[in-house]
Amino acid sequence: MQNYKNIVWKYLSILFILFALIVTARFIYDKNHHHYMLERKISHLSADMQQMFQSSQKSLNEKYLMLATQLMSDKEVSELFKHNKRDALYTLLKNNYKEFIHIDKHLHIMHFIDKNNITVLRMHKPSSYADDLTVKRPMAAYVNKSLIQQNAFEVGKNGIVYRITVPFYYNNEHIGILEFGVEPSNFVDAINKQYKLESELLVKNESLNVLVTKKEYKQLDEYSIITQSTLFKNISPMIDLTKDTQIIKYESKYYIIFTNLNLHNYQNEKVAKVLIAKDITTFISKNSNSLFVINTITIAVMLFIFLFLYILFTKYINEINSYILKTNSLQKQSKYLEKRANRDNLTNAHNKEYLNKYLVDFLKINRNGIILFFDIDDFKNCNDTHGHLIG
After folding, report:
1. Packing angle between helix 75-82 and helix 86-103, nearest 10 degrees?
2. Is the pTM of this model over 0.70?
3. Could you give the angle at the alpha carbon of 354 between the alpha carbons of 353 and 360, nearest 5°?
4. Residues 253, 174: contact at Cβ < 8 Å?
5. Residues ≥6 apart with Cβ < 8 Å to 330
6. Model confidence pLDDT, tens digit, residues 41-51
7. How confident is the model at residue 54 (pLDDT cuts 50, 70, 90)?
8. Of the candidates 322, 207, 337, which has an alpha carbon nearest to the alpha carbon of residue 266?
């Protein structure tokens, strides 16, 4: 009986180990799947933002190229620009400039520069003119020299903007360049409308050398923090710029931080970057809850199966136990009946049937033997007088 129990418990132990391995494997799979879904979410968001960022630049370029073409087609504007009539040019375009800003709140710069890289008129700051931009504004100098229109980020006297710089022609004569400058927040706001984001603008320290007004900016690695949301003021120390994306937990919320939206100058060199934070607390919460539910169900199913097998094996043990008890009882009865059949009831000595069986078995093995017979005279009188029990 004990051997059966040991065997059953051995198999139950093996099954329990197998179940533990299955549950562990399921945990690992679910965890990896959870990580995969999170990586997939991050990848899709990153790709969407990169695409929207590029689309925003393309639509912005097209819009201001069209505006530059309209201004070049205006004879009066071209005449005033060619002959360096800045006051008259400002008066002529003042209302138009206000209307442009009303249409696009991110428009910051409208700049007329002659072909020698000298400022003719800054519509955004008419009191500042006649400065040579050859060194301070290499993109403007490049466009004047190459006559190739450029769109890129560049730090000017007062900050960094996205510049659409167009060669300006009058009667097929190159007379200078017209430049529009859009604040970087234009691109962040475009993405924010769809994804509800927070942002931070970083500019490389070396790019800020041309600023007229020097400011003390907070630093993040080799970058200066130009603008930042309230969230970024708190989480900036936790950001690792060597990673394109990372997840940061702040005040019980989870944020994906994208650091791969780089801003390039006309030579395709990184001059700045936009950091974007996307709240994914709901996604992580749903994913974690789903993971918890699946794992709970897995454990419950495994426990149910194990309990079912335990009951089944226990029932099997009880049946075996009952069978063994019955077998033992039958064996005892068989031995008792065999004893009764081979012995005399009164004397408990072996009877004739046992003698015959013994002789047959003995003669099969041995050739020689001796049989002794004993006879007691008048033993019947003893039995009759004193009883068979005494006899």
Report:
1. 130
2. no
3. 95
4. no
5. none
6. 888 888 887 88
7. confident
8. 207
